[in-house]
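Much of the work behind modern protein science is quiet bookkeeping, done one molecule at a time. The protein below has been through that process, and both of its lines are reproduced in full.


***
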Amino acid sequence: MRQRVIILISLLLAFNLSACNRAPQPREFKSEAGRFSVMTPAPLEEMVLPLETQGDKIDLHIFSGQLGDTGYFVSYWDYPPGLVHPDRLEEMLDASRDGSVAKVSGKLIREGKLTLMGNPGRELVIETGSQTGPEIRRLQGRLFIVGNRMYQIMVVAPKDQKSRPEPGAFLQSLKLLGGQAPVGRASPPAEKRD
């Protein structure tokens, strides 16, 4: 009898320890006001920062969550009316990319073009930190211009962190709600990578 109890306790401990090592199950997070959804492994909380850019006031909406040493972020802001034109989209994506690199005092490691429902975007990998300063962190992100709105989705983690599926799945999970159409187009196609 005692041996059975010991075996049962050992099995329960082994099950509980293996459950602790499992990756968290992503959950859908929706922002009706932001008109997007993502599958996130960490709960996201919203913060709104009022900003002034070139004389215009905008609200920067940031949704952030933390899981261990990895941060998950989605943000968006609306450009003032009349600022976004189809012939300036690449220039605006360049400016957003450059702003992201400068904001973290980082170095652009990789960049690629992609689309989300016909909307132009960029995929970025940025490294920040130095050998003499704080640990080197890797920022993986995507930027999209949708109508007059800029979306950014990013994951920040230590550079030497072993590859985990959550960051890539999080970045790929961004979906637009409410049939948002691209600038100058009527019917959005499905996501593709260029």
Q: What stands out?
A: Residues 64 and 171 are 13 Å apart (CA to CA). The first helix runs from residue 2 to 21. The chain has one domain: 25-185.
